[in-house]
Amino acid sequence: MSSIIHSQAADIPSAMTTTGFEHFWSQGDLITRSVAALLLLMSISAWVVILWKGWLLRRVHVDLQRAVPAFWAAPSLEDGRAQLAAFDRESVLRPLVDAAVAAPPGGTLEARGHADSQLTRRLRDALHRVVGQLQFGQVLLASIGSTAPFIGLFGTVWGIMNSFRNIGAKGAANLATVAPGIAEALVATAIGLMAAILAVMAYNYFSRRIRVISSEMETFSSDFLNIVRRRFF
Predict the structure, then answer these.
(1) CA atoms of 172 and 181, how far apart (whole Å)
(2) What is the pLDDT along the chain (233 residues), one digit of tens a residue?
(3) What is the pTM of this model?
(4) Backbone angles phi, psi at 90, to 5 degrees
(5) Cβ-Cβ contacts under 8 Å for 57 (sequence gap 6 or more)
(6) DSSP string spanning 115-147?
């Protein structure tokens, strides 16, 4: 018995040398290949969103630190808007200023409301639009984080089922026959977990950064609202 086990264990390295992505792809069926392609696409998508949002939020943070003091240091509202045009590269503050000074079109329900309510509504809507732009990509990261492990697990289960079918077809059950297929099947779970962990960590980090930026924008909007009220009302 011990000699049989040793011979089977010795056959595993030689069998495993034939495994790998090429062998996994060539030996896999449509479902196996679809799972692998989907997980690869999710991983690439997560990295693209992470790199882009990391660059964008860093840029917005720097712009806010420069644009807000420059705006308040301006002698007039017109000069303040000019300062924002120079420092607000991602246009997170300029829409707030433009919305506050814009007049509603005549003959509309908005124009019939109280002027102070119109101003508050325009600033609120502009703020929501900017925050929505900053949140772009968050849904994708959340979706990858919640679905990638289950897609990888499905690929693993399907791969193990194929391994058992091969055992039944060959009529032999030994380590050299079972190990390569199961090892390849477990790769799907590993890839799914890696993609999910990366997406969840990025989602939480970006959510915190967006909350900080949104808080700074709300503070600016509130202070700017008081100035506009004193000027026009």
Answers:
(1) 14
(2) 444 334 444 443 444 444 455 555 566 677 878 888 898 899 999 999 999 999 999 999 999 999 999 999 988 888 888 888 889 888 899 988 888 777 665 555 555 556 667 788 888 888 999 999 999 999 999 999 999 999 988 888 887 787 777 666 666 556 565 666 676 677 778 888 899 999 999 999 999 999 999 999 999 988 888 887 776 55
(3) 0.77
(4) -100, 5
(5) 134, 206, 209, 210, 213
(6) HHHHHHHHHHHHHHHHHHHHTTTHHHHHHHHHH
